[in-house]
Design goal:
- The protein has 498 residues and is α/β, with parallel strands linked by helices.
- 56% of the residues lie in helices and 15% in strands.
- The protein folds into 2 domains: 201 residues, Growth Hormone, Chain: A (Up-down Bundle); 233 residues, 3-Layer(aba) Sandwich (Rossmann fold).
- Strand 5, helix 9 and strand 6 form a beta-alpha-beta unit.
- Helix 1 runs parallel beside helix 3, helix 1 packs across helix 5 and helix 3 packs parallel to helix 6.
């Protein structure tokens, strides 16, 4: 019996950390800036656990019964937390207070668990043995959860189903403790009935978690959802609205097929058209294949290497009929080699040089993306760019995130690149910025290939002019050890009212 309770410490520790990680991941998905969100979630959760441990001293009667009741409540609150928070995000303007309040309640309840178990077992072991055993099982459970969460739970179950599943586990711990101590617990039948009701509720949540996810995403997105998947790295959703398709990553729009040609023509053609017979091209990011589609319009290009972290995205855009039609089957071209890897790590091992490099990463909304906009990364790109080559970087909106945009420019300059900033208007996003970087002076081309929908010599000439409200401002260089760009980006985009 004593060791059964000790094993329950391992189980409840695993459950508690899963709830904490789920809240952190959910907050970073919905609110951005994963470092800030995880820091706040961890701080709130741990302080709430401390409060729970303090409050446990006021529980003086029916300790095992109270422990069972707490496990049932944790199963309900923690198990339903992800579904509730996803649903609330789209219907309330007070999401953050609700998020932190729910985390606080869960933390208090989890903080009560260990002190109560120690008091139940205080007469079964010497104090030094009890403390060592309790915390050994507790920390091992935390390690198990930290490995289980990113490897299995997020990519294979998703946040909502995983929360319901671990809520069930908490309820099972309660029922197991009730079985072990039924003679010491008043009204065991009432607790057993409550446990069974919660099991049915949470099991229904596991079974219908896909429907719940679809419902919450229906609230979040316009149009109908035609594909959705939680990959190893992010939440991927494809929506359709009338005749247009939209790609969303972690709730953020990446493109709208109605006007994506403007973005990708502006990204690729000014730089690539300036080169005489380019042959080797490197694309970093851009797993949708839309930049590659534009690159393959140049007959001289005989090899395109695309490096994108998420294999689920590149496979989707290689196989899904509507998406393949959109990128003109670009990722299945014999000229294209797709590599699924972290671009930062891959660039460290790269020894080839390229005539043209396209850097098409998502905006620097967190530090894992921000490292791809640092001077350290740009030095790696400089090594990979031929002396006569040209590189282009998507660089967020110079209107909404003015300092962020010029931070990218300054960071490129700091490692020796000659920069040519420019911008275009995109109906789905507003004014959007790019930077061409080269080792020699760059001039915008006077002619462009025929058949383009947006780029012409006239539109190209207008792209390099910046009105006063987007003109250059002071901005620090983005370095690995400060990631100032992430702070700029968060501050500037947080002012936008969605």
């Amino acid at each position: 019996m004593s060791y059964a309770l000790l094993f329950s410490v391992f189980v409840i520790s695993t459950c508690g950390l899963v709830y904490e990680l789920t809240a952190g991941a959910l907050a970073s998905y919905l609110l951005g800036d994963s470092v800030t969100q995880f820091s706040i979630i961890i701080g709130v959760y741990l302080s709430a656990m401390g409060l729970g441990s303090y409050l446990s001293k006021y529980i003086v009667k029916n300790i095992i019964a109270v422990f069972i009741e707490i496990e049932l409540i944790i199963g309900l609150v923690g198990g339903c937390s992800a579904a509730v928070l996803f649903s609330l995000f789209e219907v309330t303007a007070h999401f953050r207070p609700l998020l932190y309040s729910l985390i606080g309640v869960t933390g208090v309840l989890v903080g009560l668990e260990i002190p109560l178990i120690m008091r139940v077992l205080k007469n079964k072991f010497e104090f030094k043995d009890l403390v060592s055993k309790i915390f050994t099982f507790d920390y091992i459970g935390a390690l198990f959860a930290s490995l289980l969460f990113p490897i299995i739970l997020v990519p294979h179950l998703g946040l909502i189903r995983a929360s319901f599943l671990f809520g069930i586990i908490n309820v099972l711990v309660a029922l197991w403790a009730l079985h072990l101590f039924k003679k010491e617990v008043p009204q065991p039948r009432a607790l057993a009935l409550a446990g069974v009701i919660l099991l049915v509720l949470l099991l229904a949540g596991v079974v219908y978690s896909g429907n719940i996810t679809e419902f919450t995403e229906t609230l979040a997105y316009k149009g109908s959802i035609i594909f959705a998947k939680t990959t190893k790295y992010q939440r991927l959703v494809i929506t359709r609205e009338e005749e247009s398709l939209q790609l969303h990553l972690n709730g953020n729009l990446q493109f709208n097929s109605r006007d994506e040609y403007r973005y990708h023509e502006a990204l690729v053609h000014p730089g690539l058209q300036s080169l005489e017979a380019p042959k080797e091209v490197l694309v970093l990011g851009g797993g949708d294949g839309l930049a590659v589609r534009e690159i393959l319009k140049y007959n001289s290009v005989n090899a395109v290497t695309l490096v994108d972290l998420d294999a689920d995205i590149t496979k989707l855009f290689q196989k899904h009929e509507m998406l393949v039609a959109l990128n003109k089957n670009a990722l299945n071209s014999s000229k294209v080699r797709v590599i699924n890897a972290d671009a930062f790590i891959w660039m460290k091992g790269n020894t080839r040089q390229y005539d043209f490099i396209v850097v098409d990463f998502p905006d620097p909304s967190n530090f894992s993306l921000g490292k791809l906009y640092t001077n350290t990364f740009y030095r790696l790109l400089g090594r990979a760019l031929s002396d006569d080559g040209v590189m282009v970087i998507q660089s967020t909106s110079p209107f909404v995130a003015r300092r962020s945009f010029w931070c990218v420019v300054n960071t490129l300059k700091s490692v020796g690149f000659i920069t040519t900033p420019y911008h275009v208007y995109l109906p789905s996003f507003g004014d959007w910025g790019y930077v061409i970087a080269s080792k020699k002076e760059f001039s915008m081309p006077d002619t462009f290939m025929s058949g383009l929908k947006f780029i012409t010599p006239d539109t190209a000439r207008g792209m390099t002019g910046f009105p006063p409200d987007m003109a250059q401002v002071d901005a620090d260089v983005n370095r690995l050890n400060n990631q100032v760009l992430v702070r700029y980006f968060e501050e500037e985009w947080s002012r936008v009212v969605h």
